Amino acid sequence: MRKAVVIGAGIAGIASAIRLVKKGYKVDVFEANSYPGGKLTSFRIGDYRFDAGPPLFTMPNYVDELFQLFDEKPSDFFTYKKKRIACKYFWEDGVELSAYSDKILFFNEVEKKLGVDSKVLEKYLLNAKLKYDLTAPLFLEQSLHKLSSFLNKQTIKAILKLNSFEISQNLHSVNSKQLKEPHLVQMYDRFATYNGSSPFKTPGIMTLIQHLEQEYGTFVPEGGMVQITNSLFELAKRKGVNFKMGSKVQEIVLKQSNAVGITVENKRKFYDYVFSNMDVFPTYKYLLQKIKAPKRILNQEASSSAVIFYWGIKSKFNQLDLHNVFFSKDYKNEFQSIFQKKEVSDDFTIYVNVTSKDVPQDAPKGCENWFVMINTPPDLGQDWNMIKDDLRKKVIDKLSTILNVKLEKIIEKESVMTPPMISQKTGSHLGALYGNSSNSRVAAFLRHPNFSSKIKNLYFCGGSVHPGGGIPLCLLSAKIATDLIPNASNVKD
Asked: What is the reported pTM?
């Protein structure tokens, strides 16, 4: 029987294993940690449960289709519901805005709270939809690094409408020009953080992210984000995937210019295909030491990282939703601080996620579990203990003022994550959350492809390669990578 190996049991690694089994391969997955999921895991502090990463879940159809590959009913194993309010926004001047999933409700909210005519926002989102419809078949559904991807009618159609992509302008410029109202501009600027980029650098084509969230909505998995990992992990095992947890791969074995297996626990194991779900930087640094790494790709600007506080709060806040954003006064200064690799400034945006709003068992009765994230530069040797302590004080002061509460006194449990810890726990280079940033017009073309042009039978999936970071894109990377190889029955000796 033909065999394939996946290095890493992150969400893209698990999805790749599932798709490889469907193609008829015997699949082994080796994971250095004792648990699957990578960044998509959870943990407990006393009676509080926390998702390790932010509970932002979009495009659930990409999870569902993995069950549907085997004619299983997804809802028998994984359930979720659409959020009525995608996010609630707070500004220090007292403005509050609820981003309703229902488009009409949201348009009315923006007109009522910010005085922006619905027609302005409708036109903006229609432009975003146009960008998505034109580019999704090229950028999201196939390998961007093969000539065949560009030789089709859809690509030609997209090229003919290149001006509509607004790649010559940055996202902030596009938002300012089309929306004008400062609060609304700032709200849509923050969508650049969804791939770890700056709205003052990433091109205007990135408004397509706004379209995805507004058009398709955001969702809450029952039991928390970790259920995405758990349900797919169990699906993979049901279909025969063999997981080796706590097994750190030492090397990708090469024979001439072919990947033929791996070394693990000082033993060589041989496979027809090798898939790496590791961050691409450590893949080359540790597993392919004899191969000249593609420096142009690996030396690109890293995405943002984060300092995350996990707080058990002895209170309930009616004004908060599941997902909340507290804006800084000087948004531009914040992103200059992040992407010019400076210390974290006094101007920063706070993301507060409270899953116990929807999953009561995540916190004791009358309490809440707060995931509090502040975007930061990646780890370049900064004094993160000092930064963490400084940020903690600033965050508590800021939230206490906006929410009119003495927050310090009601924090019952606490844990913290810094960029070096993110790097150590997940293998993410420099603790960057999304691999490379998208802070240039050509960044999408410079991400590492899902295959190796130098090594046959070696493939890549996950947030550090094409098409990018975040759950939907990681799942798409698994599909793109596995689609590049034939069914096992068609492999020739």
From this structure: 0.93
